[in-house]
Amino acid sequence: MAQTVSLSAAPRQATGKGAARQARFHGKVPAVIYGHGRNAQPLELEAKALEKALQGVEPASTIIELAVDGKTVKTLIREIQRHPIRPDIIHVDFYEIHAAEKVKLKIPVHLVGSPDGVRNAGGVLDQVTREVEIEVLPENIPDRVELDVNALKIGDSLHVRDLSIANAKILTEADLTIATVVPPRAEEVAAPSPEAATEVAEPELIRKVREGEEEEGEAAPEAGAASKPEVKGAGGAAAPAKAEKAEKPKGGKES
Known about the structure:
- With 255 residues, this protein is mostly beta strands.
- The protein is 9% helix and 34% strand.
- The protein has a six-stranded mixed β-barrel with strand order 1-3-2-6-5-4.
- The relative contact order is 0.12.
């Protein structure tokens, strides 16, 4: 069943952003109460008392007995506004409820157990939906609903239709997935670093040519090899060496 906590509030005379800042400066939390045809009434509460009252409870499904001007009314918290940076509460909306009137509210879904697909196959449990909306009498408000996930194997899912809440009507769509077990995520293989992938080339050995040695590609004649006889032409002059055959011009005939 829903938990019940008691709080005291005082009417807030001044309204607007400036008045709200002043209230927070003095350790108060601006609030408002509405419901059952009553005009929205501005209130303020002690910030420390509010924080203490909400510790360890589910605010959305906790009945708040709010004392205002000596009269106590049962309420539900419809909205809590917090500072964008700090965890401080900066505003609260209370909704008055009556014992004989059903209310609509959202309650959290808690998963119970360890799925088979997680224990034995390394799967991952993924909770998709964390709260559901119900319609219920105030006296039957549960603080949460539990869902057993022990039997789930990889690929299995549980849906809203698998929930069971006594004395309450579930308003959330029945086919909505609550939890599923997905296959284990593949481990990423790290790519080899460029330094490891690139082999270090062997340095080229450069040797200085010594005096008297021929450079590479210009081999010296072998010792003792006979020199080619010089051919003399008429008049004893040395005949020019036989010219190499001229390169045949492209596209022409050899003369």
